Amino acid sequence: MTNASAKKGSLATRFKRLVKVSTLTAKIAATYLTLKSRAILSSASRKEELNREFEIKSANQVVETLGQMRGVMMKLGQMAGYLDDGIPENVKATLGTLYNRVPPMTRELTERTIEIELGASLDGVFRSFDLDPIAAASIGQVHRAITKSGNAVAVKIQYPDAAPTMAADLANTDAMSRIIGLAFPNMDTKRVVSEIRERMLEELDYEIEARNQSLFYNYYQGHPFIHIPRLYPELSTKRLLVTELVSGSSFDEVVNWPSQERNLAAETIYRFVFGSLYRIAAFNGDPHPGNYIFHKAGRVTFLDFGLTKVFQPAHLFVFESMIKSILIEPDANA
User: Fold this and answer.
1) Does the model's pTM come out above 0.85?
2) Domain covering 107-158+205-314, topology
3) What pLDDT sits at residue 136?
4) Which residues pair with 282 in a beta bridge?
5) What pLDDT does 176 receive?
6) What is the residue-wise DSSP string for 57-95?
């Protein structure tokens, strides 16, 4: 493909995705106007009911559109779903379905994509392979498989259009800033967009994710309650990542566990986040509930290390100084 053709294709993809965002905005506006007109002569309780109806309908419209778009826009929708920045609970619950309502690739496309990456047939590499995904995310989907040596593995394959889709979204900085502004109303969205661009471009390269995961795996190997899945680098590529398959309970299940079990799980997450930050200077920047698998007695498996930030000592010094001034030796001026 010539540079001119590639540029033309990139502009076309960007335009199509801009149209989808604009169409979504128009749909939400139409829903708002319709319900607002119905509320003019309504009682206070009926107005409240119509407001909730608008929140749910608009959130469903967002989920439907972002789920089809995948890429950066979908990930931003996921982020909004687990933040507590004034988003109504029913809206957060609806956005939370973005973790599992992504349309998967067809079985035929999945098989062809994986075989291109492996340079061999599925039968030639795996003892068995389930072409129906167990999870579908913003840039890829995950399948169960059994290796020739009999190990159960999770195979994450990147969507064939993930790279151009991601590039188109990252070029739409205005649209990204608007969506981020809804999720992070008090932040400098330009700096947030800049950081997201850098990290998400890295996320497209599964070899980088494999290195990130190895960093955490090597540090926590043998830990009693923090578990990182083993990697299979000999079966992995830039667009294919094969790791140990882990089963357990989801976040939605854990919220109904006894308080002692919930507290142990929460403590494990806390220790993983801050222990990783201050001991290996690494932060897993995609901590949504879909990336945790829970086990009893506080044991948690952590998944997905594509969005990882490794900090320099100077950064950690600033973090430590802030915590010292806030908690240990309170100093408002500092």
Assistant:
1) no
2) Transferase(Phosphotransferase); domain 1 (1.10.510)
3) 77
4) 310
5) 62
6) HHHHHHHHHHHHH-HHHHHHHHHHHT--SS--HHHHHHH
